[in-house]
Amino acid sequence: MDRTIEQILPAIRMMLDGRGLKTLRLLSDDDPPPAAGGSMLSLPDFTDLDEVRDAIEWYREAKGRAPDLIHIEGIGTLAVGDATASGRMRGRVAIVTGAAQGFGEGIARCLADEGACVVVADLNEVAGRTAADAIGALFVKTDVSDHRSVEALVRRTVEEFGGVDLFVSNAGVLRAGDIESMTPETFDFVTRVNYNAWFYCVKAVAPVMKIQNQWAPENYGDMVQINSKSGLRGSRANFAYAGGKFGGVGLTQSFALELAPHRIKVNSVCPGNFYDGPLWSDPENGLFVQYLAAGKVPGAKTIDDVRRHYMAQVPMGKGTTPEDVARAVMYLVEQTCETGQALPVTGGQIMLN
């Protein structure tokens, strides 16, 4: 689809109320026809968004309300929706990558519960669709290591909702191993998913957020990378993962400096260990299994030995949950003075100086 869709819809969405509390869906040929009685604003083909803004203002003054439908010659018909759900994230359009399971699924669920319009993005189509259906979200199959796939994700979100307010880059992989056992191919794979993908996500969504804020002077956009405590402290026999996460914090700080003039906040959340999630507890490839095989915990003979070793390092005596991480994400969204931060959510295991 023409790139202009990603330029036009986010602008119009903000013209409608300036707060992003409207959705703007591009209707397709497969959609049922609009209900009779819906009010429509028809516009000719255009090149100037100022003309669209003037037409919307004229319509609002003449009719006393925003239109239900906007038809633009050469673009199509846009269905205007109101944010009806309540909560801390009411009306925000949020993309969460790697949201089929684990932290990503929990974050997506919490955001939906707080009123967000959520897009579940994941390479695992079966699990991703199941997670999306459970919370009433849109699923988009996405490979975050492929920049074209990420661009398609953002485009599909704009077509469905009219813009993006929050992008949570959560998808990640971990392959433990020491220097001798780590292959260049595995190192490259981990780096593409954990480091390169953060750049791909920011590059794809930044233009949409810039356009939104151009047309809504009080608005802010948010990009949040779900990093790791391993992005704040090195991890023995886990350098591929830790190195990519350290690099992710550097990207976060640099992106934040570049995008701050556009009122786009860029932050990282650095969770501790989600011991009950699949990353750690998967019986075949979970970290407890990997770390036992890699000899990462000296003297450990069983998976339970590895688990006890890690739990003993957390002052709060608990693992980090998806709800803990989601609350951190919502904090970063709600405030307007935090950018370029790497916020630890580790039960006290990592404390910033």
Q: Summed up, what is this model?
A:
The chain is α/β, with parallel strands linked by helices and 353 residues long.
Question: Would you mind describing this structure in some detail?
Answer:
With about 350 residues, this protein is α/β, with parallel strands linked by helices. The protein folds into two domains: about 80 residues, no CATH class; about 250 residues, NAD(P)-binding Rossmann-like Domain (Rossmann fold, 3-Layer(aba) Sandwich), CATH 3.40.50. Helix content is about 45%, strand content about 15%. It has eleven helices and eleven strands. The chain has a seven-stranded parallel β-sheet, sandwiched between helices. The longest helix is centred in the middle third of the chain and has 31 residues. The protein starts with a helix and ends in an 8-residue tail after the last strand. The model has no long low-confidence stretch (mean pLDDT about 95).
